[in-house]
Amino acid sequence: MKPEIIIHNSVSLDCSLTGFMPDMSLHYRIAGEYKPDAHLIGANTVIAGNEMFGEGIPEELTSDLIQPDRDPNLPWWILVDSRGRLQGTLHTCRRFEYCRDVILLVSEKTHGNYLEYLKKRNYRYIIAGNEKVDLKLAVEQLKITFGINRILTDTGRVLGNLLLNMGLVNEISILIHPLLVGENCYPMFSELKNEVKIKLKRSDRIDNGCVWNVYDIIG
Q: Are 188 and 9 in contact (CB under 8 A)?
């Protein structure tokens, strides 16, 4: 069986992922309640995070080339990067203390220079797919190779919709904030190709006005 995959996102009432300031403390508290074995993250999210919260990419140190020895109960960070866009920046992810370590998902067409970069720095990686990463094959390999049984992704529309289109998602967790973004809405599900049937399994009203809804995928 493939790992369980959960999409967790904070949205406005009109289901926008951007255009407002979500309650990030609550967002990550809920994410932590799932106790995932891994977080699945797209390269775009890492790049955007470095641009938003960083002050430039810090210099890579010798210590960054070593796989960290951290609590095995911490989640892995699984990064999808067939084009090698994170070359030169992966140490910013490896340094994150609440991450066990980084595992890269790449494809057969990923440039050899990038694979050498990963090998020299002792990054684990899985090759799955030809041109792009075959996520179905990749998550199966994550379970076989690393014993990963539960994956959570909260990185936005592109990766989440791709997983839904491939039928890989088991559950959707949505933290709905009490506001409407309006004409600048960036809707969470606008890239779905087909109808996805869901069933509400949990709905909690939060003191700050948010509502947390959890849905099972039933078709």
A: yes
- Write down all domains in the chain, each with its CATH number in brackets: 1-37+151-219 (3.40.430.10), 38-148 (3.40.430.10)
- Give the separation between CA 42 and CA 121, rounded to whole angstroms: 20
This model's pTM is above 0.70: yes
> How many CA atoms are closer than 13 Å to the CA of 175, on its beta-carbon side?
20
What type of residue is 19?
G
What are the E-state strand segments in the chain?
4-11, 38-42, 76-80, 102-106, 124-127, 150-153, 171-176, 198-205, 211-217
Which amino acid belongs to residue 31?
A
Model confidence over 163-209: pLDDT tens digits? 999 999 999 999 999 999 999 999 999 999 999 999 999 999 999 99
Q: Can you give the pLDDT at residue 54?
A: 63
Which pair of tokens denotes residue 93? Answer: 């992810």
Which parts of the chain register pLDDT below 50?
A: none
